[in-house]
Amino acid sequence: MQSASSPFLPFHLPLIEEDDMRAVHDVLKTGWITTGPRAARFEQEFAQYIGARHALAVNSGTAALHLALDAIGINEGDEVLVPTLTFAATAEAVIYLKARPVLVDCDAETFNLDPALAGRAITANTRAIVPVHFAGQPCDMDPLLHTARAHNLKVIEDAAHALPARYRGKIIGTLGDLTCFSFYATKSITTGEGGMVTTHDEGWADRMRVMRLHGISKDAWKRYTAEGSWRYEILAPGFKYNLTDMQAALGISQLLKCERLWSRRKALAARYTAELGALGAFDLPAVRPDVEHAWHLYVLRIRPAELTIHRDRVIEELKQRGIGTSVHFIPLHLHPYYRDHWGYRRGDFPVAEDYFERCLSLPLYPAMSDDDQTRVIAALQEIANRYRRAAVSVPAELLQEPGDLPQPAVSGLMRSQDGADAENAVLCAAERRPRGEHSWYLRRGKRLLDLVGATAALALGSPLVLACAAAVRFGSSGPVFFRQRRVGLAGRPFDVLKFRTMKSGNAGPLVTAAGDPRITSAGRWLRRWKLDELPQFLNVLKGEMSLVGPRPEVPEYVAKYNAAQHTVLAHKPGITSPASLTFIDEEAVLAAQPDRESYYAAVLLPHKLEIDLEYCRTVSLAADLQILLGTLRRLLPGNRDGRQTAPGTLNASAPIAEQVASAPR
Ligand SMILES: *Cc1c(COP(=O)(O)O)cnc(C)c1O
After folding, report:
1. Domains in the chain, start-ordered, CATH in brackets?
2. Using a 6 Å CB cutoff, which residues line ligand 1?
3. What residues are annotated to the active site?
4. Less packed terminus of the chain by CB within 10 Å, N or C?
5. Which is nearest to 573 in space by CA: 558, 559, 603, 553?
6. pLDDT reading at 602 higher than 90
7. Residue 477 confidence class, pLDDT cut points 50, 70, 90
8. Of ligand 1's atoms, which has the minimum distance to the CA of residue 182?
9. Rounded to the nearest whole angstrom, what is the distance from the C-alpha of residue 570 to the centroid of ligand 1?
10. What is the tens place of the pLDDT at every residue in 38-85?
């Protein structure tokens, strides 16, 4: 597909022109190559451009964040709110100061830090908020600043993507207490490596000026020029964060063309939006009406209801067509360090996770030509047409179950600009049974059975429930309950409740197999009798689950469902189902597999979905009672020996490839 006439189009190329090169060349000739007059001039011109009283040039955006956090006095034990959807640097700078980065989810429109969630994350130890103007779109600063003022918190903006950008007419760089910019190679203007902090506050500016060069009270160039003196004082253990004059010269030259580069970015972004929207296969960036976007990144999200392939595959397909892309970002909480050291886990930030599963960033930079962009658009058209799902039509009324779950859906999982996705994706299971023919059982009786059944189970089983809770509580350290994000009716996410059976703070694979070392001894016993599932009667009372219904899955798997499999979301998920009965010993089956997650996704899950979909087509009171009785019977002592694993087509010891071939699609 990649032909000799179309060389690889990289995800990014900086635009370095003749005048940029001349500027650097001139510095080399002066003999002053480290921090000196050009760094000072770059600061002045930058401060003027932004309208900030002070601008301090440093050698990276990360250094800018570190100095800003230090200037406001962040210290050991302090908490700083940081979006989980950001680059490593934002939270890392907090950790440099021995403070705790408290991660916060983003809103599902702009993928910027959600101000309401930030408000809820504030504790007595919170000192600051570091919003990131993601992709170049300013955060909703007014509510954020209001919350910060109310709790006496400082706001340090990570504006690495946001030069230049405006929020309600004001340029980014003076809204918060301090603002940090980056001139890394991929950013809107570059010095190779470099950064800048802006602030109106003289005290903070002084502190940062000292700390960026070893905590020394005078800048180097003053010491060595005629008016300077040799004398200096170390006021604090500072850092080596100064920007060289070679870099500053490039910065001055780049700053001059900042607006021109921005215009080009805006034009490229506008064309993507105009031409990709019609494909219907991608969610495009939504821009708030009260901002001007810097367009550092153009991020698409795959619509799983429209395309049969996952984001990873779209990236691969683009690469085969000679087009480079990137992913911004893997949410921080999914990285091993944040998981192991700070106890975050998958499921903690559903909006960022759903975003991450579907996002990819397209090439967007002034050095690319209109023809380059035509290639990107054509490649996406080709991919969208090739992998488009067959259309499913859906009667929208069927989504409504009166008196059930609260509206609206919180996740972006099924969202689209017109909201039609959820409807499209969800419902053809019901197609065989038009609304008018819904039985009384489906409309009312099933919910009644759920309420009566769950109440009775919790009341009669209360001694057992208490005993289990005590075993979990005192068997190992950690909470009694374990919550995991699952996808429920109509694609709405909810947290499934279980008794904790694993050691606290453990993440790891999405599927659990028998003998998993993460399982505690109490946990092993609970899982054997499925007692860990008891708290799900609470999910039933809350209306999120039914006693009988298809088992809810984690968002990662649902994102990969095909159109037929998606229809399972038209049914309220259940504690038990025909598939749970068939695969009651799923964990033993998985234990025999070398690659459990692949085996689960490729073999077990399609089988389970097929069985549950068949159930969905034939729901009745009699069937539900039969499944409930069947489940009870299987769980009673003495009935677990004849280990039924799976139907004949499934052979736990056969290689995955063979079984994938036989798995239903
Ligand atoms: C690039 C970037 C930074 C800082 O980057 P440096 O490479 O240190 O200049 C900080 N935050 C975000 C979100 C970034 O993208």
Report:
1. 18-257 (3.40.640.10), 259-386 (3.90.1150.10), 396-660 (no CATH)
2. 60-62, 86-87, 89-90, 132, 158, 160-161, 182, 184, 195
3. 187
4. C
5. 553
6. no
7. confident
8. 9
9. 42
10. 999 999 999 999 999 999 999 999 999 999 999 999 999 999 999 999
